Amino acid sequence: MAKPVQTLSEFIIEREKDFPFATGDLSQLLTSIRLAAKLVNREVNKAGLVTDILGATDQHNIQGEQQQKLDVYANDRFITAMRNQGAVCAVASEENDEHIVFDTPTSRSGKYVVAMDPLDGSSNIDVNVSIGTIFSIYRRLDPEKVTVDDFLQPGNQQVAAGYVVYGSSTMLVYTTGNGVNGFTLDPSIGVFCLSHPNMRIPEDGKIYSVNEGNYFDFPEPVRNYIDACKRKKYSARYIGSLVADFHRNLLKGGIYMYPGTTDKPGGKLRLVYEANPLSMLVEQAGGAATDGRTRIVDIKPEKLHQRCPLFIGSKKMVEQVM
Ligand code: P6P
Question: Which numeric CATH code is attached to 207-321?
Fold first, then answer.
C-alpha cells in the first residue's frame, strides 16, 4: 500500500499544532501564497501559447528593468492573494517603488507584512528557463500603523520565508523556522504534495554558480576562490535565474555567488526580498549565507530595494570564501 501523500494544506494544519499560540493567521497566509503560485504557474506554463502574456510591457520598475508582462501578472496575483485574506496588512515588491498598505477592514489589523520578488529571473521567461517567486514574512512592528520600517527589519526577524520555482515541475519550498519542506505541484489535481520533507543542504559541494563574465571585476579573494574551484574540477552551473540556481544547490550542495564589483560594490541582488528569505531557508537547511563579511540575516536594511553581495549555499563552501 503506497504511503499516503500529504498535501500542503494538510501539512500546514498539522504543523500549526507546533505553535501553541498559533491563531491560524500564518497558515491562512501560506494558503494564499499557495493559491497565487498555482495561478502564476498556469500562466508561466502556457506563456507564448494562447495568452498574449509574453514579451515586455512599456512599464519599467524601480530597477529600470523593463517589466515583462508575466512579472506584472505575477505581482498582481500575489498582491491580490495577500489583500484578500486578512493576515497581511502590507506588501513590498520588487515591482513597486513603495510598499503597499492594505486598507480593507479585514487587512487593516493583519499582523504580518510580506516582502516579495513576484517573478525573479523574468528575462528568462522568453527562453523557457526556470523562474521563481521569492517571499519573506515579518510580524508588523506597530499595531497602529505600517511604515517602510516594517520591511527594514533584519532577516533574523523573519517569521517565515520561501520560494516557488516554476521549472520542469513547480515546487513550493518554505520554512517557518522549524526546518525546510518542499512541495511539488501535481498538475493533474492542482495540489501541492509534500515531496521533500526536512530538506538539508549538503555541508560541502562541488558546484559553483557565478557569472564569470564579471570575473575581472571581482575582488581578488573571490577570483582566488573561483580559481580554486577550477583547480578542484568543480562543476560550473549558472542558469542566470537565482531561484533555479539556489534550488539545485540546496538539493545537491554548492555555492551561489553574486559578488560586488568595482563599479557595483553592492552587487545586483536585493537584500530584503531576495537575499534575506533565501538566507533564512539555507540556514534552516544547515547552510550559510553572507555578503562576504557579515551573515546576511544580521544586516540591518536601510532601504527597501538596497542591493547586497551574496554568497550562499553549503556551509563549508561559504566559510571557505569568507
Ligand atoms: P547576471 C535575474 O535577473 C537575477 O536577478 C537572478 O535571478 C540571477 O541569478 C541574476 O539576476 C543574473 O544576473 O548579471 O548574471 O545576468
Answer: 3.40.190.80
